[in-house]
Amino acid sequence: MAYDDSSEPVSASAVDTAPAPAPRAPAPRPPEPGTAGERPAPTEPEVFPQALKVLVAGGFGAGKTTFVGAVSEIAPLSTEELLTQVGAGLDDLTGVEAKTSTTVAMDFGRITLDPRHVLYLFGTPGQERFWFLWDELCEGALGAVVLADTRRLEQSFSAVDFFEQRGIGFVVAVNEFDGSYRYDPEEVRAALGLDGRVPVILCDARIASSGIRTLVTLVQHLLTTVTSVGAAL
Ligand SMILES: Nc1nc2c(ncn2[C@@H]2O[C@H](COP(=O)(O)OP(=O)(O)OP(=O)(O)O)[C@@H](O)[C@H]2O)c(=O)[nH]1
Ligand SMILES: [Mg+2]
Prior knowledge:
- The chain is an alpha/beta fold.
- The protein is 26% helix and 23% strand.
- The protein has helices at 12-17, 64-71, 132-137, 157-166, 185-192, 208-225, 229-232; strands at residues 51-58, 77-82, 101-114, 117-123, 143-149, 169-175, 200-203.
- Strands 2-3-4-1-5-6-7 form a seven-stranded mixed beta sheet, sandwiched between helices.
- Strand 5, helix 4 (157-166) and strand 6 (169-175) form a beta-alpha-beta unit.
């Protein structure tokens, strides 16, 4: 008689007629290397988060909205309002007389640089009367592009000061406007009193590839200078 430790005695006939136990299911085998289901071993340390917040800043009319619109892979959000006579005494249109609208809150766009770097772009408003928004916009920002307008280079000082004071890494992108003086990047560095490590590059805010090159330069700059990304976020 088969051994059974249950309290009910088991008769010989019951044992004889009992169905054979179902064969035990084979134990799951680990997936073969390279097949679906295997978690690939991390090849490099996870130093950067997936989503990076980047500001696109600069003086009034420097090309911030144009830059965000050119590089964004989604329809950019913009908050443009017409410039009217009401702002005539407040807005300095010297050098940007052709401007008909202005950003009153922010621009927003997104670009995937590579599988590990998705940038969320926030364009700042350029006019002084909206600068109070910059502090809100820079919350959680990891880096910034300061667009320098070659027609009014001095308008970039405030943006440079803003990011220097907050310890936010930035690059200066010299947006070359038609007919304006062509600066050498080192001239711009000297004029703005920039640290030797801050990249200064030439760009055209209207051209996507130029904007993307600027953003790649920014990410590379941040990777080499930001030691603790977690602390910056
Ligand atoms: N020629 C030329 N024009 C540009 C360039 N970038 C921007 N513009 C033009 O300059 C004008 C102003 O650009 P915006 O992108 O509105 O500038 P902004 O910095 O967002 O302006 P605010 O938000 O008002 O401070 C637009 O008509 C653009 O087409 C450039 O690189 N070259
Ligand atoms: Mg704008």
